[in-house]
Amino acid sequence: MLGWHDVYNIYCVYSVMNLERYWSEKRNDSLSRKTFVEEKGVKKYLLANFSGTAQSIDIGKSAYTVGDFYRTKDNLKADPNDPGALERAVKEQFDMPQWASVALNRSLAETNMTFMPQTKTCNVYCPWCFVDDFNKNGEKGAGEYFSVSEGIDALEELRKDKTIHVMRRSGGEPLLLPWQWTENLRELDKRGLSKEVYFQGETNLMTGHFIDHLQSEGRLDKNFWNEVAAYDNFGVLCSFKGTDAESHLGAIGFSNKKFSFLEEERWHTFDSMVKAGVDAYPFVYDPNPASLKGFLEKGMGKYGPDFASKTWVFPLKMYGPEKIRLERKGISKADLQARLDEDFRISDDMMHELVPKMTGHEYKAVPRTDVQLKVA
Question: Has residue 13 got a pLDDT over 50?
Fold first, then answer.
C-alpha cells in the first residue's frame, strides 16, 4: 500500500499536473478500479477477509456466513434488556443505533446489532485506524468479490436467526465505490426491506471531487447524492479527522503540506451531502483542542448552529492492527494513546462548554436524529 511518501514521490513525477486533480482523477480512480469487477453488467466489490489478520478477533466474536467476509457487531455495550442502560449508552458511547431506531420505529435493542461487509480499500493512512493494513490495501490478496445481491442474501440468511435491522458498508473507504450505496438501497427496497433494514454509510470525506469526476465522465449518475438522500432508511457517519489543516493531515497519515488541499476536500464532500439533503452525522476523531472552536465556527458558518448540535467528538482506543502498524514505524503506542486520550478529554470538556453558548442547549442534549443540516 502506498504511504504518504510514495504519494509525494508520484507528485514529483507528475509535477506538471495539478496535485488536486491527480488525487481525484488518478489516485482515487486507480484504487476504485482495482476494487470492483463487472460481470455481465453486475458490479462485484472487493471485500476483506479477516482470517489470519489482526482483525480476526472480530470474526471470532461475530456471526458470518460467506467465508470470513461478513460479520455482525453489537454497537452499544449495554444490557439489551435494560432500555435505560441502552439510552445512556447512546450518549456515552455512540448514537448510531439510534439513527435506525428512529428511522424504523424500533427499539434500541432491536437496532443494536449491525451487519458489516468491509470494503478492502482506503485512500488515507490514519495511524490509529482499527483496520489491518492488509484489509485496506486495495489488493485482492485473500479478499473476494461479491455483488450487493450476494451480500443481502447473506444478511437475509442471518436474519432468520438473529435480530438484525442495520446494514453498514464499512471500510476502508466505501465511497471509493459509490455505486454500492445506491445498489444496496435499491436492492433492500426491491426486497421489501426498506422499513426493516437501515442502511448506514460511512466516509472519510476524501472523495468529493472524485465523485464529481465520475459524474462528469458519465460513470456515476449525476443525481447520485439526491438519490441516496431520498431514502428514509439511510444516514452517513462522516469522519472528520483533526480540526484544522495540520491536524487533519497528521490524522490521515500525510506530512507534506502540499496536501493541505485535503482540508477543503472534506468540506466539499460534506457540503455535497448536505446540499442534497443526506442525513449526515459529523464525528470528529483526533481533535486538536486549540482549533476545535474554530472548526465548529467554520461549520456553523456553512450550516448554522445546527452544525454544533449535530457534531460529536469521538475517543479512540488502539487494538491489534494499530499496534502492529505503529511498531513497524517506530511510534510509541503508549505515547500516541496518551496524546489521543488527553486531546479527547480536553475536547470533550470544551464541547460541553461551547455547545450551550453556540446552540442554547447542552452538548448531546438534542438527539442528532432531530437535527437535519442545511446550507446556511
Answer: no
Q: Place 365 in a pLDDT band, splitting at 50, 70 and 90.
A: very high
- Residues 282 and 263: their CA atoms lie apart, in Å, by 15
For the record, the C-alpha cell of 205 comes out as 470525506
Query: Nearest to residue 299, comparing CAs of 234, 243, 371, 360?
Result: 243
pLDDT digits 0-9 by tens, 180-202: 999 999 999 999 999 999 999 99
Prior bond of 299 cis (ω within 30°)? no
Which string of b and e fits 261-295 if b means at least 16 CB within 10 Å? ebeebbebbbbbbbebebbbbbbbbbbbbebbbeb
In sequence order, what are the beta bridge partners of 373? none
**8 Å CB contact between 1 and 133:** yes
Dihedral of CA 17/24/273/89: which sign? negative
Residue pLDDT, tens place only, 237-292: 999 999 999 999 999 999 889 999 999 999 999 999 999 999 999 999 999 999 99
pTM above 0.90, yes or no: yes
- Measure the CA–CA gap between 211 and 175, rounded to whole angstroms: 8
What the chain holds in terms of domains, given with CATH numbers, is: 4-370 (3.20.20.70)
Strands (E), the chain: 36-39, 42-47, 70-74, 113-117, 144-147, 166-168, 198-203, 234-241, 280-285, 312-314
* Residue whose C-alpha cell is 452538548: 363
Task: Please enumerate in sequence order all residues whose Cβ is within 8 A of that of 207, keeping only pairs 6 or more positions apart, or say none.
Answer: 28, 123, 173, 175, 176, 178, 269
